[in-house]
Amino acid sequence: xxxxxxxxxxxxxxxxxxxxxxxxxxxxxxxxxxxxxxxxxxxxxxxxxxxxxxxxxxxxxxxxxxxxxxxxxxxxxxxxxxxxxxxxxxxxxxxxxxxxxxxxxxxxxxxxxxxxxxxxxxxxxxxxxxxxxxxxxxxxxxxxxxxxxxxxxxxxxxxxxxxxxxxxxxxxxxxxxxxxxxxxxxxxxxxxxxxxxxxxxxxxxxxxxxxxxxxxxxxxxxxxxxxxxxxxxxxxxxxxxxxxxxxx
Amino acid sequence: xxxxxxxxxxxxxxxxxxxxxxxxxxxxxxxxxxxxxxxxxxxxxxxxxxxxxxxxxxxxxxxxxxxxxxxxxxxxxxxxxxxxxxxxxxxxxxxxxxxxxxxxxxxxxxxxxxxxxxxxxxxxxxxxxxxxxxxxxxxxxxxxxxxxxxxxxxxxxxxxxxxxxxxxxxxxxxxxxxxxxxxxxxxxxxxxxxxxxxxxxxxxxxxxxxxxxxxxxxxxxxxxxxxxxxxxxxxxxxxxxxxxxxxxxxxxxxxxxxxxxxxxxxxxxxxxxxxxxxxxxxx
Lengths: 248, 283
Prior knowledge:
The complex is a heterodimer of chains A (248) and B (283). Chain A has 248 residues and is an alpha/beta fold. Chain A has a single domain (13-246), classed as TIM Barrel (Alpha-Beta Barrel), CATH 3.20.20. Chain A is 36% helix and 14% strand. Chain A has helices spanning 32-42, 60-71, 91-100, 110-113, 120-132, 159-167, 181-188, 193-196, 213-222, 238-246; strands at 13-19, 46-51, 78-80, 105-108, 135-139, 174-177, 199-202, 226-227. Chain A has a five-stranded parallel sheet. In chain A, strands 1-2-3 form a three-stranded parallel sheet. Chain B has 283 residues and is α/β, with parallel strands linked by helices. Chain B has helices spanning 7-10, 39-53, 77-93, 109-121, 141-150, 174-183, 200-206, 226-233, 247-258, 264-278; strands at 23-28, 57-61, 98-104, 126-129, 154-156, 189-191, 213-216, 239-240. Chain B has a single domain, classed as Alpha-Beta Barrel (TIM Barrel), CATH 3.20.20.140. Chain B has an eight-stranded parallel sheet with strand order 1-2-3-4-5-6-7-8. Helix content of chain B is 39%, strand content 12%.
C-alpha cells in the first residue's frame, strides 16, 4: 500500500510550540516529554518552546524559572522561549537571561499583560530584543475566537501592532505566530522591504487547498518568510506537515 | 415512496494506488456563477489535493451562488437549482469520484422538496442544509421526513455551541439539531464540521446518546483532544471523515486518527465504511 504521509524536510524546526496547562480547556499531556515524543514520531528535529502558564502569570519571571527547569533535560531538542512583560519590574533581566541562556527568542503577550501593543513598552521591549540579538515572538491568537471561554477576552493582535513593532527599532526581528492570511498580507505590503525582511511568520493559521493560502503567500510574500509552527499543545502537530506537503 | 437513484453515483472506486477507500463527506465545489474568477482552479485544487491525500470519493455540495447573487447561507431558489444542477454535472464528469448533496433552503418548502426529489432521481446521495433556518424549526420537518423516506442523510451546517446570533446566518448547533433528530428518529443527520469553529466539546457531549446523528470531522480546527473526545462521545461508528474548506487540516486529523492505533475496524470505519453505510454506497 502506498505511503501517503507527508515527507518531512531534514532539520525541520517547529517555531511555535509551548508546554504547560491552559486555563480554559484541557490540553492533553502538555509536557516536554510528550512534545519530544511527538517531534520524534513526526520527524521534526527541534522546537522553540514557550510556556502557557506564563501567558497568565502576573510575574512572568517565575514562569520563566519553570520553563527553564522543565526544559533542562531536553535542551538538545527543545529551545526555551521565555516570556517578557515589559510593563512589569525587572523585565530587562528576563531579556538578558534569555540571551545568557542562548534562547533564540522571547515571547510577549500585550493583551494578556495589559500594555498597548503599539505603545512605548512594546517599543522598549523591541529595542532590548534587538540589542540582545534575540527574536521577538508575537502571538496573534491562542484559540479560534468562536470557541473561547467567556472569561477569555484578550483581543487578537492587530496588523497595526505588528507594523508598529517592526518600525520601532531598525534591527528588531519579529516572528508572528497564528496569523491568518489577511494579517500576513496587510503587514507585509504595509511595510517597507527592509521592515518586511525582519518579519517571519509561522504557518499554523494558514490554510491549504482548495484556497491554497500558504502556496499563494509563498509566491506573494516569499517562501523564506515562513517557518513551521504547530502550536502544540493546542493543535495537532500533523497539521503543520500536511500544509507543507500540500503547498508543494 | 421509493428512492430512484442512478447506480453510477452510488458506486465509488477503491483506493487509488492500492490504498483503502477514503470518503470525504464534506466537500464543496464552485461554478462560474459564484463570481470568483479562480473557481475552476479551486475545483482543480480540491481534486489534486484529494489525489495526494488518497480521497476516493468527494461527497460535495454547492451552496447556490456562494454569495454572488444570493447569500451563501440563505440561497435563493434560483441559485439552489443552478448549484444543484452544476453539482450533478460535476459528479457526472467524475463518475465514481464525486457525488453530490442536494442543497435546499427550508424557507421555500415546495422548492426544497422538488429539488430533493429531482436530485435523488438523478443520483445525488444526501441533503445539505446551510444556515437558512434553525435546525429545530418545524419548517425542517418535511425535509427530514423525505430524507427518512429515501434513507438519505441530512448534513446540517452548524456552529459548535451557539452562544449568540451571528450575521448572515441563522445558525444552529448540536442542541438545535438534536431537537430535529428526536422528532425524526427514522432520519439520519450529520452535524457538520465539528472542527469548523466553536466549542466542539459542547457538541460532542450533547450528541453522546443521539443514535441518529453522526459527526463529521471537517473544519479548520485541529485542536488536540478533539479526536479523543469524538471517540469517547460518539465512537468510531458515528464518526465521518471530511475536509470542508481546509483539506490540510482534514488530512492532519486523518493522520492523527491513524496514529492512535485504534484497530482496523475503527480505521476503516471513519475512512469509508461508516460513510458507505450511511449513504448506502456500493464500494
